[in-house]
Structures are given as structure tokens and as C-alpha cells.
Design brief:
This protein has 480 residues and is mainly α. Helices cover 59% and strands 4% of the residues. It binds arginine (ARG).
């Protein structure tokens, strides 16, 4: 069967009202579909209108627009915003994107003056501005959410500062640690995530407005004016860079990816900890779901989904880098493809952070079970070796060997190390005395690890205090 060539088919509509001056016919239906971004970039409406308001003010201040036109534009833009926010606005695919949709409606509302708004501007610097503002707003929302998650972790760490659990390497019991110490490790990770977002914010905070299409403008514009009005530190120095740079999107998604990886590792631990063989923690009803067939089940879905969303966030990073890597300067329509991955990554991360904060806030530990597992499998063997170094003066390598032999004897007998008699120990190393038993409990083991950054309960209590000071709820930043 012969297939119709859709690309050759032309919509018998009038040419595009925004750029169709030299066109006789409108675009093919498929062209309209591949070109339209309004389905997703409508999310930029607030940033787009804020940018237009600042641009119009600057045009008036520079004498490029009359004050009268400036007032009409302001009134019109505010009305467009109100229409969008109340859901009355009619978005049109024919008008491609948010920039054209807003401008077309503005002109409908205020007439001629609407057409003057785009003087000394292009959609290229306009979209660069909108996305920059959107990423900045998103960082300003996510960063305090991470602070909130840290606060939840710090609260639990305080509660469980002295709660003993097994510390793992290779997911094999290694040494006893405290649950509070474990949770505080994540406070550090999310602290770095916050600082990465803050870094990204510093670098992105330059205004691309004034670059126009790519080369700058012949009108007597003042890019410093718009930069200041929109809370930027300065205008961008190079107009070509201004319209083609998407570093801030990549940087944001890179920071988001790492935050997602951290969320995912904690999610994985939560899934393990609440499994039946572990039973280290219980999640609240609010953050688990039941099974449709097995009435006893409490599934940690929120943790699984937070773990699962990592793929799409990291995927967004790959999509963005791949989209940019072959693009010659300056703008290319490929760049329109930055938005869906960006929005999806930000939404996914936001959900993950919020879900994790909720899970952590509600979780209950099972200290008896944690302690029992921490005490098994000769987890205090290192403490015995350290005792031999300290009290007998053995070189560590030899102490390791002696301890290994004692663990072997205890394992053959099926008992813990502290159940070996003094005589049995002395048969291996004659200088061992009764005081050795003091180091052979999990409590003594964690208490002894008071070196900087170590797991001792006293350390955790101090780390909790310091963390509340080091990681305040909100960081500064030049917010609008
Ligand atoms: N919707 C476009 C985007 O997201 C806006 C910029 C269009 N610029 C152009 N020269 N066609 O990238």
C-alpha cells in the first residue's frame, strides 16, 4: 500500500502570524507538531512574563519605548498572567511556544503596543532567560527541601545516637556502629548536594538579555538594567555565549543526579532494613503500601520509587549532554529539547526529597534486633586485636593473627569471643589478662571509637549539635 508522504502535506492555513511574513503557506501538520513546545514550556510562563516586564521597563527607561506603551504592556502582561493562573488562558499549538502565546495574547489585549515589546529582543535570549530563571527558582525551592531532609535525619540521629547496629563493608558485618552515626553520614552527603546547588546558582546568575538573536542589539539598550531588575549579578559578557549556553541546565541536572544517587542509596538501605530478615526499622503506615493479595505485607514503595526515579534523573543528564555536544554556536532548535528532561528531573528529585524526609521523620528503629545482629559474627574482633596492640604491645599484624586464631577457636565451639575462658585465650597468647573482657562488648566497641568522625555515641551527640549549626534551614542567595 502506498503511504502518504506526511511531510509533503501542507496545512491549508494562513502563514504563521509571528514570523510568516515571507511565507505563502502554513506549516505541514507534522511540522507544527514537531515544532511546538507549548505543551511543556507553558511552565515557564511566570519567568517569561517577569522577563518581559523587566525588558519593557528597560526599553522605556532608555527612551526606546514611550511611557504610554510601557504602561499598556505592563497592564497587558499582568492580565495575561492572571488569565494563565486562573486557567482561562487558551494556549495554542499554532503559536509554538510560551513566548509567542504570551505575546500574541498581549497584542490581542493592548493592540499595536504589544508588537513593540519584542524590540531589541529575540526568543533566543528570551528562552535563555526564562530557563535560567526557572532553574534558579527551582534551586531556591529544592535547596531548603534538602535542608528539611537533613533536619529530619539529624532529629533521628539524635534519638538513636547510642543505638547500636552492625556497620557493614561488602554488606558483611564489619564492626558495631551507632544508628545515629549512620544517619549522620547522609546529612553530610545532602550537605554537599546543597552546596553543589548553591554553586550552580552562583554561576548561572548572569542575565542573557540583550544578546537578542545572537549578536547583540543596535538599539541603545541597557542590559545592566534588566539584569539588576531580575536579581542577576551582572549581564553575560558575550552575546553568542548568552544564547547558546545551557551549562546551567547541565550543572543543575548533574547536581540533581548526585542528590538522586544519595537518595537512592538511602532508599536501598531502607528497603533492606525493613525486610523481614533484617527488621532493623519499621516505616510508618503513611509511607508503605499493602499488597492486593498478601494481607501481611508492608511494602516500602516510597523508598523503591525514590530509588527508581534515579534512572530518569541521570537519564536527563545524559540527554542534555548528548543534545549539546554537537551543536555549533549559537542557538539551535535542538535546545528546545532541554526542557522536558529538565522539568522531569526537577520534579522527580523534588518528589524523592519530600518522600525521603517523610519516611525518615516517621521511621522507628528496632534497637534490640540491631544490637543482636551487631553482636553476632565476631564484630568485636578488631577490638580484641586493638587491645593486644595497646596492652600487650604486639605489632598490629601479629595481634591480627592471634585474634584470628581466637576467633577460629570460638567459631569451632559455636560461641562468642567473650565466652572463651581466660585459659583458652592464654593458650594462644600468654600475656592476655582478665581486663580483655572489657573490650569484648559492642557497647565498649562503639564507645571507644571516639576519634574525630568516629561512631562513639558522644561523638554523634556532638555531631548532631554541630550539624544544626553547619546546616541552617535556609541559606542566603540573591532572591527576587
Ligand atoms: N521554543 C524555543 C525553545 O525552547 C524558543 C526559542 C526559539 N528560537 C528560535 N530561533 N526559533 O528553544
Amino acid at each position: 500500500m502506498a503511504r502518504k508522504n506526511t511531510t509533503a502535506r501542507v496545512v491549508k492555513s494562513r502563514s504563521n502570524t509571528m514570523w510568516g511574513g515571507r511565507y505563502k503557506l502554513g506549516p505541514a501538520e507534522i511540522m507544527e507538531r514537531i515544532n511546538a513546545s507549548i505543551g511543556f514550556d507553558r511552565r515557564l510562563y511566570a519567568q517569561d512574563i517577569a522577563g518581559s516586564l523587566a525588558h519593557a521597563d528597560m526599553l522605556v527607561a532608555q527612551g526606546i519605548l514611550t511611557a504610554k506603551d510601557g504602561r499598556a504592556i505592563r497592564r497587558g502582561l499582568l492580565q495575561v498572567r492572571a488569565e494563565i493562573e486562573s486557567g482561562r488562558f487558551k494556549f495554542s499549538t499554532k503559536l509554538e511556544d510560551i513566548h509567542f502565546n504570551v505575546e500574541a495574547r498581549l497584542t490581542e489585549l493592548i493592540g499595536q503596543a504589544g508588537g513593540r515589546l519584542h524590540t531589541a529582543r529575540s526568543r533566543n535570549d528570551q528562552v535563555a532567560l526564562d530557563v535560567r530563571l526557572w532553574v534558579r527558582d527551582t534551586i531556591d525551592r529544592l535547596e531548603p527541601m534538602l535542608a528539611d531532609l537533613q533536619a529530619a535525619l539529624i532529629d533521628r540521629a539524635e534519638e538513636y545516637a547510642a543505638t547500636i547496629m552492625p556497620g557493614f563493608t561488602h554488606l558483611q558485618t564489619a564492626q558495631p556502629i551507632t544508628f545515629g552515626h549512620h544517619l549522620m553520614a547522609y546529612v553530610e552527603m545532602f550537605g554537599r548536594d546543597r552546596s553543589r546547588l548553591a554553586d550552580c546558582r552562583v554561576r548561572l546568575n548572569e542575565s542573557p538579555l540583550g544578546a537578542a538573536a545572537l549578536a547583540g542589539s543596535p538599539h541603545p539598550i541597557d542590559p545592566r538594567h534588566t539584569a539588576r531588575a531580575l536579581g542577576f549579578d551582572r549581564p553575560m559578557a558575550n552575546s553568542l555565549d548568552a544564547v547558546s549556553d545551557r551549562d546551567y541546565v547541565v550543572e543543575f541536572i548533574a547536581a540533581a543526579s548526585l542528590a538522586a544517587v544519595h537518595l537512592s542509596r538511602l532508599s536501598e538501605e531502607i528497603v533492606i532494613w525493613c525486610s523481614a530478615p533484617f527488621r532493623f526499622i519499621a516505616l510508618s503506615d503513611a509511607f508503605t503500601t499493602g499488597s492486593s493479595i498478601m494481607p501481611q505485607k508492608r511494602n516500602p514503595d516510597a523508598a523503591e520509587l525514590t530509588r527508581g526515579k534515579t534512572g530518569r534523573i541521570v537519564g536527563a543528564f545524559v540527554a542534555l549532554c548528548t543534545m549539546l555536544k554537537g551543536l555549533p554556536l549559537t542557538y539551535g532548535k535542538d535546545m528546545q529539547e532541554d526542557k522536558e528532561p529538565l522539568f522531569d528531573a526537577a520534579d522527580s528529585l523534588e518528589l524523592g526529597i519530600a518522600a525521603m524526609a517523610g519516611m525518615v521523620r516517621d521511621l522507628k528503629a528496632n534497637p534490640a534486633r540491631m544490637r543482636a545482629v551487631a553482636s553476632a559474627d565476631y564484630s568485636v574482633a578488631t577490638d580484641l586485636a586493638d587491645w593486644l596492640v595497646r596492652e600487650v604491645g604486639l605489632p598490629f599484624r601479629q595481634a591480627h593473627h592471634v585474634t584470628g586464631r581466637l576467633v577460629g577457636i570460638a567459631a569451632d565451639k559455636g560461641v562468642d569471643l567473650d565466652k572463651l575462658s581466660l585459659a583458652e585465650m592464654r593458650a594462644v597468647e600468654s600475656r592476655i589478662d582478665r581486663s580483655v573482657y572489657r573490650v569484648l562488648t559492642v557497647e565498649a566497641s562503639v564507645k571507644a571509637r571516639k576519634s574525630l568522625g568516629g561512631t562513639a555515641p558522644a561523638n554523634v551527640a556532638r555531631a548532631v549539635k554541630e550539624a544544626r549549626r553547619r546546616f541552617p534551614g535556609r541559606t542566603k542567595g540573591s532572591r527576587r
